[in-house]
Amino acid sequence: MADCNNGFKEAVCIDAGRVYDSCCDRDCLEDLRVYFNISDQQLINEASNVRARNAELLTVLVDVEPVTFNRGYYSVDMTFFFAVEVEVFSAALPSTRTTVNGFSVFNKKVILCGTDGSAKTFSSDDILSDDATLIGRGSMPKATVQTLDPIVLSTNLCPICGCDCDCGYNNIPVAVARATVGEEYLAQPVLELCQSATKKVTVTLGLFSVVQLIRNVQMLMPVYDFCVPEKECIATTDNPCELFKKIKFPVDEFFPTSECEQSCCENCN
After folding, report:
1. Is residue 8 helix, strand or coil?
2. What residues contact residue 7 under an 8 Å CB cut-off, 6+ apart?
3. pLDDT digits 0-9 by tens, 30-63
4. In sequence order, what are the residues at sequence separation of 6 or more whose Cβ sits closer than 8 angstroms to the Cβ of residue 79?
5. If residue 268 lies in a helix (H) or strand (E), which one and from where to where?
6. What angle do CA 261, 20, 140 make, to 5 degrees?
7. Which residues pair with 179 in a beta bridge?
8. Where do the DSSP E strands lie in the chain?
9. Maximum distance among all Cα pairs of the chain, rounded to whole angstroms
10. pLDDT greater than 70 at residue 193
């Protein structure tokens, strides 16, 4: 048994999620459209200028599918929903400003190695309801996404000319609508929202993220420190933002230092 000064006190058998593959990435999300409800869109139509005050990541929908042509690898599809707070400057009264809330959507896909596995997992926590399937959790790994709130890099107010097909997102979660544009947005046909817009707001956001594929396994091992992925995700944009590339990856935000380590060692003296 090692003492505390060597990094661990004892070795125990644990059932834990092992990270089989991970990647970190910095995405420059250029010209994401911000969607508003009809009343706020009318303010945008009459605006002379806009400025994004703040952007917040509300949720990420994650889906994992096996890659058919490469066994043991999985595609992780992510849909990011952002709440965007925008200041609207009136064309009639330039000194007058109004704050409105909207949302933006960004889709991203990465491919990671999750290994093969065929064991099915059952637990005493499982509840067999009338519509439940009679199988345990299968061999698919679990994907996790860690991210910080985005950095607002720029805001644009653009006229809509002709047919703008990018006029709404049909599958917005109810919780996202409640936090941004209101539930009435869900009842509005997308066509009506398109017809009411003569101008649109776009934002460019900088986003840091860490994606992991995890499987639960039984392990006997000491824990020394945090594991930080060194491999970067493959770039998916042809027009990267040079300014955003120069920002150092905020490792300390994802892996905060523990205040308990020092007191532990002090107690061993």
Report:
1. coil
2. 222, 224
3. 999 998 888 888 888 888 899 999 999 999 999 9
4. 60, 61, 105, 106, 107
5. helix 260-268
6. 125
7. none
8. 13-34, 47-66, 73-90, 97-113, 142-147, 151-159, 199-220
9. 76
10. no
Calpha distance 198→93 (Å, rounded): 19
- In this structure, which amino acid lies at residue 135? I
d(CA 20, CA 146): 16
Count the alpha carbons within 13 Å of 42 in the hemisphere toward its beta carbon: 3
**What is the tens place of the pLDDT at every residue in 81-99?**
999 999 999 877 767 788 9
Which pair of structure tokens corresponds to residue 177?
Answer: 């609508």
Express each pLDDT in 91-143 by its tens digit. Answer: 777 677 889 998 999 999 999 888 776 666 666 655 555 555 544 455 788 89
Residues in a beta bridge with 213: 21, 143
For 62-85, b/e burial (b = at least 16 CB within 10 A) is: eeeebeeeeeebbbbebbbbbbbb
CA 146/CA 249 separation, integer angstroms: 13
Geometric angle at alpha carbon 202, from 109 and 105, rounded to 5°: 30
Number of neighbours of residue 245 by Cβ within 10 angstroms: 10
Q: Where are the strands (E) in 91-184, listed by range?
A: 97-113, 142-147, 151-159
pLDDT of residue 267: 45
**CA gap 173, 128 in Å, rounded:** 27
- Does the global pTM surpass 0.85? no
Answer yes or no: are the C-beta atoms of 208 and 160 closer than 8 Å: no
What does residue 6 show for φ and ψ, rounded to 5 degrees? -90, 0
